[in-house]
TrEMBL record:
Stated name of the protein: Flagella synthesis protein FlgN
Gene3D superfamilies the UniProt entry points to: FlgN-like
UniProt organism field: Massilia niabensis
Keywords attached to this entry: Bacterial flagellum biogenesis, Cell projection, Cilium, Flagellum
Membrane found in the keyword field: no
Domain of life: Bacteria
Presence of the UniProt keyword 4Fe-4S in the record: no
InterPro entries attached to this UniProt entry: FlgN-like, FlgN-like_sf
Family note: Belongs to the FlgN family.
Function: Required for the efficient initiation of filament assembly.
Amino acid sequence: MSSMTSPGTTLTFEHERIEALVELMKQEQQFLVSADADGLAQLTPRKVALVQELAQRSRERHAALSRAGFEPSEAGMEPWLAAQADEAVRSTWTALLAQTLEAKELNRVNGMLINRQMAHNQTVLNALRTPTGGADQALYGAKGQTFGSGPSQRFVVG
């Protein structure tokens, strides 16, 4: 991005990318609900790339705000927009903010789904580790070895 670029230059790109991110997060939510690990594994690199692109463009917009004499943050956009009096740019900014809020909410819900799945997995693991029967029940250790939960089969010779 050149030093002559305005803070509004990145907005269209950012808006397109946040829309794509929201769509990926909706897909992620469906994969989480259906416990589709393969789908999640394919989606994650694309999601990470979009987040990185968004972060880079946001940094570029902040730098352009600073060069224009405004606060280099989201808070600097309102004064800059007021000085521009460009309704198309303001509209894109408003849409970007709305999509960002949707992405934050999707992220919150997806995080809850992930935590629920982790709790379920922990319950299953605990059930596998806990004997349900008598002394003849065998358990599996971390390396796959079996060990019994009943009395020792060793004899003391004395």
